[in-house]
Amino acid sequence: MSTSVAPDRPCPFCVISITHPPTPLLPTPSPPPTRPLSPPTYLLLSTPSVLAFLDIMPLAPAHTLVIPRRHAPKLTDLSPSESAILGAWLPVISRAVCRVVGWGEFNIVQNNGPSAAQVVPHLHYHLIPRPPLGPAPGYTSLQISTVVFGRGQREDLEDKEGAEIAARIRKEIFAELEELRRNRGSGSNGTGPEGTGEGERSKRLEEEERVLLAQL
Fold first, then answer.
1. 162 and 40 in contact (C-beta within 8 Å)?
2. pTM listed for this prediction
């Protein structure tokens, strides 16, 4: 978002939350909002606690915003359970976005308050894919060098491009969740010996699966 939100206007992310109720995640176009939105929202995910959608003035292709459904201005306003759910979704959405753009590196940026460059007073994570160092098709050297920590040159997201990218990311998120379901159903969780790094990693993955699947 490029302009500050006027104090007497409703939170734009709360408007998105209200007009996009929780829906099952399917590898299909996102359900329409309950009422028209301007500008439109290119929805990637809508669960009881978390929403994800494309930034309408992206710093890079597939620049994504991830927010809690409940209005929480800053990170310090989240409950432990909300924080855990957001934390579980971030790597899933990140993997999906990276597969769509074909780049494996990205920034996760989260600002708290106007002095910290927060524009919309509703907590949100920016997931910004980063092209490889050096020349990148469609990007100038200035654009590449300044797309860091949420700063850089922004351009309006065109409707056709937004809809196409959103559909591809939704499909990849669905594939991620299908893999989680298969792993849980087969009992294949890669558990390592107790007390080893692999064993601890497996426990974290199991917790991620539990949190995510409970959201669907």
1. yes
2. 0.79
Q: Can 63 be counted among the known catalytic residues?
A: no
Helix (H, G, I), strand (E, B) or coil at 107: strand
Q: Do 13 and 122 touch, CB atoms closer than 8 A? A: yes
169 within 8 A of 64, measured Cβ to Cβ: yes
Of residues 4, 66, 61, 10, the one with CA closest to residue 37:
10
C-alpha angle 132-133-139 in degrees, rounded to nearest 5: 80
Greater model confidence, 33 or 80 = 80
Give the containing element (helix H, strand E) for 78. none
Map residue 44 onto helix, strand or coil: strand
**For the ranges 14-28, 112-126, 193-207, which has the lowest average pLDDT?**
193-207
Whole-angstrom distance, CA of residue 67 vs CA of residue 55 = 12
Letter string b/e over residues 2-35, b meaning 16 or more CB atoms within 10 A of that residue's CB: eeeeeeeeeebbbbbbeebebeebeeeebeebee
Structural contact between residues 20 and 41, judged by C-beta atoms closer than 8 angstroms: yes
| The pLDDT of residue 194 | 43
Write down the catalytic residue from 20, 63, 122, 124.
124
